[in-house]
From TrEMBL:
InterPro entries: Glyas_Bleomycin-R_OHBP_Dase, Glyoxalase_6, VOC_core
Organism annotation: Streptomyces stramineus
Superkingdom to which the source organism belongs: Bacteria
Name of the molecule in the record: VOC family protein
Pfam family of the protein (one): Glyoxalase_6
Domain VOC: 8-121
Length: 123
């Protein structure tokens, strides 16, 4: 029997209407840095261990959430969720009316209209 090779995720990629702006939003949201740009088409962010790259897709359409299935979804955890929500809203996130998480998590939409959740660390 051949052993299963081990691997690690090197990078996750996301698409939006403006990859560089989306990278800047998530870098600010996470306290990370934009580490590389690729012209106007893409930008990469990292904390030194995890890397995300955001691409511009001219034909991008945000999901009509919650009706549409999601292509990706991030859950972000913070020490102070209320302060994080206010900061994320000031960075360009929006808060939809539909909030299925109750007291457990809050759904926000990033600047490209894609949902992500915030919750308390350890929850």
């Amino acid at each position: 029997m051949t052993p299963t090779p081990t691997a690690q995720v090197k990078c996750a990629a996301f698409w939006g209407h403006d990859g560089k702006a989306l990278a800047a939003f998530y870098a600010d949201a996470l306290g990370w840095k934009v580490t590389q740009t690729f012209g106007d088409a893409a930008a990469m962010i990292s904390d030194g261990t995890t890397t995300y790259v955001f691409y511009t897709a001219e034909s991008f359409t945000a999901p009509n959430w919650p009706e549409d299935e999601l292509v990706f979804h991030l859950d972000l955890a913070f020490d102070d969720v209320a302060a994080a929500e206010q900061r994320l809203l000031s960075l360009g996130a929006t808060k939809p009316d539909h909030q299925p998480g109750g007291e457990h998590w809050t759904v926000l939409l990033d600047p490209s209209g894609q949902p992500f959740c915030i919750s308390a660390i350890g929850r």
